[in-house]
Amino acid sequence: MKLFGWKGAAETPRPVLSRAYALGGGILGEWPAAYEPQVRAAVHANPVAQRALRLVSEAAGGAALAANGASAADNARALVLARHVSGGQGLIETLALHLLLHGNAYVQMSCDSDGAPLELYALRPERVSVDVDARGWPVAYHYRVAERVTRLAVEDGAGRPALLHIKAINPLDDHYGLGCLGAASGAVAIHNVATQWNKALLDNAARPSGALVYDSGKDGVALSAEQFARLKAEMEAAFQGATNAGRPMLLEGGLKWQSLSMSPAEMDFIALKATAAREIALAFGVPPMLLGLPGDNTYANYREANKALWRQTILPMMDKILGGIAQGLRGWMPGLELAVDMDKVPELVEERMAYWERISSAAFLSDDEKRALLGFGENGGGRDA
Known about the structure:
Blueprint: H1 35-44, H2 47-62, E1 65-68, H3 72-82, E2 85-86, E3 89-90, H4 91-101, E4 104-111, E5 117-123, E6 128-132, E7 138-145, E8 148-153, E9 163-167, H5 181-203, E10 210-214, H6 225-238, E11 255-259, H7 268-283, H8 302-329, E12 337-340, H9 349-360, H10 367-373
Antiparallel strand pairs: 1-12, 2-3, 4-5, 4-9, 6-7, 7-8, 10-11
Helix pairs in contact: 1-5, 2-4, 2-8, 4-8, 5-7
């Protein structure tokens, strides 16, 4: 029941794009503003963005999970559903990727003949749009593939969720989350262009070109159009490109070669590319040290950088994903809670050991209280699932 007023109602279902700005494409540069071109530029063509995404999504997909609050059978069933692999892709890993890139993750719940959840499927977020009522509240979702559109209900006939929508917070939108891809697209474009510039420089014998100067002498006669065209064609065929590097030039009278060098200002692209790489890592919440980026000594060592990755990026994302899944499953599994099993995260083992030591050394706590704080049952009982 919707008791708290109106949401911003869209007149028609909108296509879902990753937005980091809404000021117009020409103002903020020429990098792509739509989701699919941004994915192709970042994930398909940029090594820094791709590696950052893999670090976060694969770590999230490989994290050990714990379920509690429901019955033992329901806890075990919930873990099976959360660890489900569909089409070769793990559910948690796929949802983490969608949430990081797009800001929205959609989970379709497939039920068996008895109405119990059978499988959970992650839907491509750019194919989903929200259908809202007159007050702006979601009533259904549209899943579009090419010209085919499927309408997915928010709830089943028993009032339980049929599709879960997990989204990153967006201060300017009631229905769609805000991903990291839009904010990183500018840095991705700069990094990609710098890579192309380096490639072009290597194609030109790894050095800037020069100028062919014609000395007309005292008479001041310029090259004719025919002479200029022939000279240009000979230069392109015999001396231009990496394959012709080092080939000696035979110049006719009045011609001399003037080599050009890059100024310090023109060499700034090297620092610009490194800065763009760090901005990409920042957008995706990955410490630059873990990506092998030079010149960044924010963290004392890789151990501290890994802790920061888990504490600041992976665990908050996992809380959002697992909290959304658990909330959707509580219609069948009352009291269910899903979380990362912190004792099985290698990057945080030192923190957990210190926590265990503090609890065990607390003389004012009974053994049962200590076991409860550490997630165990009373004496003789095993660890809570």
